[in-house]
Amino acid sequence: MGESTSTAEGDTVLSGSSSRRQRITRHSVQQGGAWRTSRQAGAGSRRRGCYEGRTPTLLEAEEEAKCAMPIKRTEYKFRPLVLRPVRPLGNLKDGIPIPMPRSGHRIVCSGLSFYSFGGYNPKISATDYADDTWHRTRPLFQELWQFNLVSHTWTRIKGEGAMPEELASHSAVQRGAYMLVFGGTAMPFGDSSSDSLYQCHLPTGKWQKIVTMGKKPKPMYGQAVCMSDDYLYVVGGTTGFQYSIDVHRLDLEQRTWDQLSPPFPPPHTVPEERYRHEVVEHEGALYVFGGGRSDASCTLTHLPTFLLDQRVWASTPTRPDARTNTFPKPRRCHVATKVDKYVYLHGGYNGSEAFADLWRLNLATFEWQLLPCKSSVPLYFHSAAVTEEGCMYIFGGVRDLNENIRTARITKVWLGVARLRDMSWEALCHYCPNLPSLPPSALLAMGIPPYIVEALQHQTPAYG
């Protein structure tokens, strides 16, 4: 699939024979939504996938490729640790559904898609969004969306079963083919919070409320959760009136809750109570990142650390970025994801300032590193998730602190060097942006890997 070369700047450039690329991509035009080659334009075109049940020949596949691949002149370069916008194909004007701007939602990655559930936007009027569910739940979104990472298309999922009603500042994690959703609040915030666990089977969109036993957390929102083995850990949160730093653990096999933090701890041994923080598990400890209350944000120079074996709190000092001798500023409503021995932290705000920076904490040395990239705008109340391949996707959030304006933009950043197959597909789509629109038979005949073709075709049952 061409050659890969490295540039002096550390970029990876995928290139192939320019004459070959031009031969495949020239002479393409689009008429009436159907792609045609110049040879076909006067005599009518073959519709997508119309090969009478047979696999197309290589020549036919190349003809299809010509139709879908207008030349893109700029050179593709793979750059890790660079935040790049992802532009979905289609928009509402084209009759293709895309999510409305939102905050307070959660996303998880599963396979070659990410899924977004819930959210909040008080700026959308009843006439801005013609949707029956929205009119019932506004300003909250009782919606599940799938974003296909291969085709860059959105699909609103037809949810079946018991879908949560608490749709803002809930928590979500991915477990196999399921998304687990816990906590959250309905409107008004805090008047109706949740202590329930739901699971959604992502391939089908079917929801189920999980019956649990034991001492579960109080109904709250803005709590932080993480998964380790078959346990779900829940830390902190708020009722809207009181804040917490309690630690609970759910055995997902036995479906039994256990409160790990002591109910009456000794004075001065417990960190500040908080909400909209993040938590990760590493080598038998839970590390809490930021968070705060309505009037304050928590520092990141020391991390509250809950030791799971001893069931006690400790404090872990961190080291500043070696280049700038700085720490991340205190913040809440940020995102943080763990990949191997690193935690990546983006965005957030402290009540008066919003952030666009991206930081990395080494869990072996606890040294912060300010990475040389920022999102195009500061973001908070956004959500992020990382694929198995190591690419972090960021969706939504508040993008304007003064005007309280939300966004539906997607940004991605490779957290390390991608596998060659992932670079190759990115490069193909860079030069040939309409390649995903080809029929499966043509893609397979061209040598596109089956897992890519299957991902392009997979779609959970759509809404409407």
What is the element layout, followed by pairings?
Layout: E1 3-6, E2 12-15, H1 18-25, E3 28-31, E4 34-37, H2 38-41, H3 58-68, E5 77-78, E6 84-86, E7 106-110, E8 113-117, H4 132-137, E9 144-148, E10 153-156, E11 160-161, E12 171-175, E13 178-182, E14 197-201, E15 206-210, E16 213-214, E17 224-228, E18 231-238, E19 243-251, E20 256-259, E21 278-282, E22 285-289, E23 292-293, E24 296-297, E25 302-307, E26 312-317, E27 335-339, E28 342-346, E29 357-362, E30 367-374, E31 383-386, E32 391-395, E33 398-400, E34 405-406, E35 410-414, H5 420-431, H6 440-445, H7 450-457
Parallel strand pairs: 11-15, 16-20
Antiparallel strand pairs: 1-2, 2-5, 3-4, 6-35, 7-8, 8-9, 9-10, 12-13, 13-14, 14-15, 17-18, 18-19, 19-20, 21-22, 22-25, 23-24, 25-26, 27-28, 28-29, 29-30, 31-32, 32-35, 33-34
Short description:
This protein is mainly beta and 464 residues long.
| Quaternary class | single chain
**3D shape:** globular
Helix content: 10-25%
> What portion of the residues fall into strands of 2 or more residues?
25-35%
Task: State the end-to-end distance.
Answer: 39 Å
Supply the key terms.
464 residues; mainly beta; five-stranded mixed sheet; 7 helices
Can you give a write-up of this model?
The protein is mainly beta. Helix content is 12%, strand content 34%. Strands 11-15-14-13-12 form a five-stranded mixed β-sheet, with no helix packed on it. The chain is globular, with a radius of gyration of 24 Å. It starts with a strand and ends in a 7-residue tail after the last helix.
